Amino acid sequence: MPERTPETNVIDYRAAEQLLAANDPRGAVKLLDALIAVHPESTSARLMRARAFFMAAQLRAAELEFQIVLEREPANAFAHFALARTLQRANRADEAKRHFRLAAALDPKPEYVEAAGFDGEGAAGFDEES
């Protein structure tokens, strides 16, 4: 295999973005695996690989990658939101709720706020009748 160069890494990263946009997450993972092998510290590559795993329904792998991103960037609202979606998809709603709320607290985007339940109805989780 030829030696990787910074240009090769950028080309693979951009190609992986295109593969995700074309709904080919497995192809994206292959490119990102090689990139991450050389640059394991690349949070952006790991975040994209986590998204690709999620799209490919490889939920455990997606969860692990999102957790690595959050270890490095605990204030990454998107990573919290995406991890929450991953946990939700894996039928782990209680764990997902925590990350939805963290995402909304870090970045009050409407989709994050709505997913967290901070949209006015039961914002504190007390919408049951007393």
From TrEMBL:
Which domain of life does the protein's organism represent?
Bacteria
Annotated Pfam families: TPR_2, TPR_6
Record's InterPro entries? TPR-like_helical_dom_sf (IPR011990), TPR_2 (IPR013105), TPR_rpt (IPR019734)
Query: What are the UniProt keywords, alphabetically?
Result: Repeat, TPR repeat
Protein name stated in the entry = Tetratricopeptide repeat protein
Taxonomic classification: Bacteria, Bacillati, Actinomycetota, Actinomycetes, Kitasatosporales
